[in-house]
Amino acid sequence: EKDKMEVVDIVFEDDGRFPNNARLPLLHYKQALQHLCQQQQQQQQHAVDADAAADDDEQMAQAWEAVVARNEWGGGWRDSVYDYHHYHSNGHEFLGVYAGSATVLMGGDAKGKGVVVSAGDGILIPAGVAHKCLQQSKDFKVIGAYARIEGTSDQYYEVDMCYGKPEERPGADDRIARLSRP
């Protein structure tokens, strides 16, 4: 159906190096920004123009930042995705693609999957899920944001960086298990 946003969910099991997250799936929202902008246009006359946002990287980045702010996510940044495996054990991460395209390996080498993303896609990465950029277009850019700390009105997770080293566990596993759903 044309009005429905396509959402792909993928569960990644612990592969021995990376904990991943068997409890929460990674969610890939395909062309979500265009869908959200069209939905908002129907509800409000002053909404972001989906076509203008698609044509202008800055407008698209600002539109993603507005989406994450409306959903009470913060700690935002703009950049790309690191080209080495990493994961966060103390917070869930959201990536909104605002320019270009890439293949991001999710879940690590052993049990992972290459996820192809392009401008307008959103990805919710649960804590513990390893991710790294395998290949990207020259103009590939994302906004990143993190979930608000439960029980606070304005504090956001400052996420840690874990790399799949044995000494990171079991501490990382304990932090992941304590997190609530995003």
Give the proportion of residues in helices.
10-25%
Gross morphology: globular
What profile does the largest beta sheet have? 6 strands, antiparallel
Give the strand order, joined by hyphens, for the main sheet. Answer: 1-2-7-4-9-3
Strand content: 25-35%
In total, the number of strands is 9
- What's the Cα radius of gyration? 16 Å
Average pLDDT value? 88
SSE ordering: EEHHHEEEHEEEEH
Contiguous runs where pLDDT drops below 50 for at least 5 residues: none
Describe it.
This protein is α+β, with helices and mostly antiparallel strands and 182 residues long. Helices cover 24% and strands 33% of the residues. The protein has 5 helices and 9 strands. It has helices spanning 32-43, 50-55, 57-70, 108-111, 171-178, and strands spanning 6-12, 21-30, 73-79, 93-99, 101-106, 113-118, 122-125, 131-136, 141-147. The strands form 2 sheets. Strands 1-2-7-4-9-3 form a 6-stranded antiparallel beta sheet, with helices on one face. It has a 3-stranded antiparallel beta sheet with strand order 6-5-8. A hairpin with an 8-residue loop joins strand 1 (6-12) and strand 2. The longest helix is centred in the middle third of the chain and has 14 residues, at 57-70. It is globular, with a radius of gyration of 16 Å. The mean pLDDT is 88.
Short description:
It contains 5 helices and 9 strands. The chain has 182 residues and is an alpha+beta fold. The strands form 2 sheets. A 6-stranded antiparallel β-sheet has the order 1-2-7-4-9-3, with helices on one face.
Which structural traits does this protein have?
alpha+beta; 182 residues; 5 helices; six-stranded antiparallel β-sheet
